[in-house]
Every structure is written in structure tokens, then in C-alpha cells.
Amino acid sequence: APPRHRPRGRRQRHRSRHSRRLTSSPGACARHGFSTGLGTPPIASIYHAWRGEPDAGEYNDILGFCASATFDQIAEHRFVLTPGRYVGTEDAEDDGEPIDKKIARLKKELYQAFEETEQLQDRVREALERIDG
Fold first, then answer.
1. How many of the other CB atoms lie within 10 Å of CB of 1?
2. Rounded-to-10 torsion of CA 25, 44, 59, 85
3. What digits encode the pLDDT tens for the residues 48-80?
4. Contact (Cβ atoms closer than 8 angstroms) between residue 50 and residue 19
5. Alpha helices in 56-98, H assignment, sequence order
């Protein structure tokens, strides 16, 4: 059952049997064309469409970006409101690189980054030692 706690001094607002979940990650916004610096208007128009406001257009869930969940769906998840439970994720695009080669390449890049980090740490330590004299 949902918790019955209500903060003191606040009136409980009427809640519909639907909840709205939007991701706000820059990656999700960019994948859906909201990276043009006009991120707020598209998100606002999606919200107004979800509300069913006149002239707002039809609302549709966008996998990996937004979803409308019913109260019952939220209850099935024991009232956990983590967006990923409702919004889901997009299928990753296949870049054609075999996974074993991709892992080897990324592992090599990571080890190179580790080596660079060690070199930079050594330079910082030397600089700090010169300051301390």
C-alpha cells in the first residue's frame, strides 16, 4: 500500500490516475532532436499534449524519453518512480563493429587514458613538491 504520510502545512493536491515521467538526460534530448537550444519548448509541447490541452496535438510515448503511466502501473512497481521503469530505453544502433573487436578497442583506449592519468598525476606531484620546497 502507498505511504499515507502528508507533509505538514501542505494541502494534498488532487492527483489524476496518471503520472508523467520525462527523462532529462542530455543524451535523450539530443537523440530526439531537442539539442538545438530549444529544448524547453518541445518538452513543454509534449507536456501540453499529455494534458490534452487544445491545439497541443496528440500525445504519444517516446521510448527512451517519456511515458505516461497509470496509477495501477505505478502500483505494480511498488510506487518506485524511477523513470527507466516506465520510459524504457531505445534499442542501441548497431555500428557494424563486432562486439569482441569493440571491447578490445575500448579496453586499449581505457588503458591509454589510465597511463595518461598517471603521467599527469606525476607532473602535479612534482609541481607541488617544488612549491613546498
1. 6
2. 30
3. 999 999 988 899 988 888 899 999 999 999 999
4. no
5. 71-76, 83-87
